[in-house]
Amino acid sequence: MTTAIQRPTRPPFYRDVTVLKWVFQIAFLIGIVTSFWILGTFSIANLAKQNLAVSWDFMSRPVGFQVAEGFTTLPDSGFQALLVGITNMLRVTISGILAATLLGTIIGVSRLSHNWLVSKLATVYIEVIRNIPLLVQIVFWGIVVSIIPDLVVDEGNDGSLKSLFGLRILPEGWIFASPKGFAMPWFVPTDGRWQWVGFMILGAVAVRYVYGWRIRLQEAGTAEARGFLWAGGVLVAFGVVGIFAHAVTGIFGPVFGFLAAFFMNTPIMVFQIALAGLVAFGGYTIIRKRVDELRTPAGLGKLTDDDWFRLSMAAVVAVGFALFFLLRAGPVEALVGQGSVFGQEIGLSQLFTGLQNRFSAGTGAPFDFSLPALDGRFNNYSVDAGHVITRAYFALWIGVVLYTAAFIGEAVRAGVLAVPRGQSEAGFAVGLKRSQLLRMIVLPQAFRIILPPVGNQYLNLAKNTSLGIAVAYPDIVQVGQTIFNQTGQTIPIVISWMAWYSFVSLTLSAIVNRWNKKLKLVER
Amino acid sequence: MNKIQRTLGVLVVLGVFAAACTADDTAPTTPDETTQTDPGTTDTTAASGSTDQTTPVAGQTGGATLDEVRARGVLKCGVGGSAVAFSETQSDGSMTGFDADMCRAVAAAVLGDATKVEFSALTAAERFTALSAGEVDLLIRNTTFTQSRDTTLGLDFGPTTYFDGQGVMGKASDGFTADSTLADVDGAVLCTNAGTTTEKNISEGAALAGATIVLSTVAEFPEAMEGFKAGSCDLVTTDASGLVGNMVTAIRDGEIQEGEWVVFPRAPISKEPLGPVYRQNDSQWADIINWTVYATFIADELDVTSGNVDSIIGASDLHPELGRLLGVSADELQTSMGLSADAFYQVISQVGNYDEIFSRNLNPVGLFREGSFNAQWYDGGMIYAPPAR
């Protein structure tokens, strides 16, 4: 059978599956873009008919209203007002995720407990919390804050929590409670804090090496790793030493100063070329990687039509972006800090100037332990002393934490139950204690199953913080609403909201996905 | 399989082209449509006395609100629903108050029946959108006339029906008296509702007085009042009428003793002229609203009330201005506005004159006309209507 194998002839392009597939994809994309374009044009035309012109001017103009809490309560522009809303939203989201994870894990494990009371309490908690709408819960907690102080605060003092039902639990002046919220002692950061943070970053790098070293020791069989113990120990050591030695990171100050000057003074053309080069290089790397993957010992593998399309698309996108950066100086200027976004200079240069100032700051302690204090004749909490938890923040935070913890608890329970029974039995058979079994065999396997649903709960938590509007918490939604009430610019505000929540959700899911990928069973 | 795919693909591509073409077509037709409706609208504007024919009519509802309301047989009026004495939803679902009665006056003028009103309770934040979107024909929701609202929202303001000013309410136990000033609020938590001019006024006012405040904005003013009662707000701020209304209600309900809360400062923080709002570029509708309000002013000026209008109308020595206004003289002007001749007679007989509307709703909560800007012009107030001739 030596007859030459007939070379397959390609069908004409209009019948070629690969070609058609991509044509459909591109047509679909055009369809979607066109629909959005049509919708946008129509809505702008309709607004124009109502004499409402869409404009982003408010972003750089003074807003003239106050925000109840945030890094500034008197924003100087619409953009800064939205930034205050964003940071307030992040405060709740990040601390909420940490607390909900902790509480949820405890609830989930409790529900599996052999202790009847513990397991039933966890069940009741979950059933009650997740069957009540979150909005109702948040409003409920807002009302509770107005009632609690009457129950727990001694008559005749300034609202300091002295004793709970006649039982002294804390020194006088440590906890304050009033209908305005709570205040508690806190480590108030002072001017050395950034140097200390820099020191801790060095510590984190050290931890990485120490952890690797312990693992290698165990793999060599010379010692048990105890990686987490070592890592934690090193971090604590750095933290303690850092309180005294943090000033050494002040040497980073001039480095940041140099970077700030570099970004400010280098001609913009250099950055345009550099960015274009970077994009082009990125495109090249992607193409190169794909080609390399297909390389066989016999030489370059055969590229399918599909590959050709992918590679050419990558090339087109890379070249497109490179040209964009080369031809349009504006976005690049804003990025490096030579231009401005909505009248605010927030580029790399400003970032490094800020870091320079922070790292060159004083050599005092990074934190001061400070007790809360009352200010003025209305007995409001002083913002400079201790830590103030406002009524709105508390109601929203406790609401989303309790609510999300109920769902995380169920995900944890499901994950633990999904680990095959044989694993536990095998663990017991080799003589592990129940706690060891949980820590070393069940939880590591359960974690893999728990992570994806818990990641979804994190997304829910982030989005649910927008319900803070019910208790007047000034997050991006509340602040944005105030702006459009004042200016009538509903569409730009809604676009800002959508962009921000998409950004947060996509970032969170990217983190969770990455982690998930790392934890996946490696299959060969 | 392939065939289906291909057909689908062709359809998609065709669809995209079709969509693109439609988009191209619609863009130029928009002005055409406007031109087509132009003659009709210019007719009505000419009839109502406006001679400015060159102004393009941009509003999609240009000149059409009256016809819409007539066809529907009911006036959709946006009110607050929870503003003491201005618009309060009663337990039986009816709406009472000063703003609600102004809506009824317009319904009486347009439809001849003061009961043909459908009230929408709107929050401060949603009121303008509701009006622009056509959910309501008219907005009378203690809304302050400001330059920015007049110019940027695509809306117009009618004559001011209540001259208000922003005040602050505090507790006497915190040391506040009626003579307190904004400088005394330093360090306080102030609450108000979102989407109002109040927010800006208090921020600017406190900054001018050198007071640092925390401003907490809630969705509706009753929430701010709850916070004030519970102690999460040290002070509340809004229009003085609203503060006094809430205070009197609280005293009436026995929640507080008289003098426990005080409204200050003596001179209001700001000017808050409250009045009706309607969509821009509908002159006919604007004229109807304006003159309905003026009719109540003029009736008050000439002492015509719902009680005596019938006897006055039959009298031989009828004031010529009243003859025109009530539609009994031949030279009446209501028909040229698109209303029936007796439109304002219906307003006065069914709803009453300005003083009646004011006294009925606002006197019980401690708001009186004497000595305020809301007195008639000849009493030193600002209630002044142009002549009906």
Q: Can you give a write-up of this model?
A:
The complex is a heterodimer of chains A (524) and B (389). Chain A is mostly helical. Chain A has 3 domains: 13-49; 78-185 and 371-519, MetI-like fold (Orthogonal Bundle), CATH 1.10.3720; 194-359, no CATH class. Chain A has helices spanning 17-49, 78-111, 116-130, 134-152, 193-220, 227-245, 252-265, 268-293, 305-327, 329-336, 348-359, 391-418, 421-429, 434-464, 476-487, 490-519, and strands at residues 163-164, 167-168, 176-178, 181-184, 186-189, 367-370, 374-375, 380-381, 387-390. In chain A, the strands form 4 sheets. Chain A has a 3-stranded antiparallel β-sheet. A two-stranded antiparallel ribbon of chain A has the order 1-2. A two-stranded antiparallel ribbon of chain A has the order 5-6. In chain A, a hairpin with a 2-residue loop joins strand 3 (176-178) and strand 4 (181-184). Chain A is globular, with a radius of gyration of 29 Å. Chain B folds into 2 domains: 65-162 and 273-379, Periplasmic binding protein-like II (D-Maltodextrin-Binding Protein, domain 2, 3-Layer(aba) Sandwich); 165-270, Periplasmic binding protein-like II (D-Maltodextrin-Binding Protein, domain 2), CATH 3.40.190. In chain B, strands 1, 5, 6, 7, 8, 9, 10, 11, 12 and 13 form a 10-stranded mixed β-sheet that branches. Chain B has a 3-stranded antiparallel β-sheet with strand order 2-3-4. The longest helix of chain B is centred in the first third of the chain and has 46 residues, at 2-47. Chain B is globular, with a radius of gyration of 25 Å. At the A-B interface, helix 1 and helix 15 of A face helix 1, helix 4, helix 6, strand 10 and helix 7 of B.
Question: What is the CATH superfamily classification of the largest domain in chain A?
Answer: MetI-like
Number of structural domains of chain A: 3
Biggest interchain interface, per-side counts: A-B, 55 and 60 residues
Strand content of chain B: 15-25%
Beta-strand segment tally of chain B: 13
How far apart lie the N and C ends of chain B? 80 Å
Quaternary assembly: heterodimer
Quote the average pLDDT of chain B: 82
CATH-derived topology of the largest domain in chain A:
MetI-like fold
Total helices of chain A: the number is: 16
The largest sheet of chain A has its strands arranged as: 3-4-9
Total number of domains of chain B: 2
- At CATH level 2, the architecture of the largest domain in chain A is Orthogonal Bundle
Structural class of chain B: alpha/beta
For the sheet with most strands of chain B, the description reads: 10 strands, mixed
Helix content of chain B: 40-55%
Strand share of the residues of chain A? 5-15%
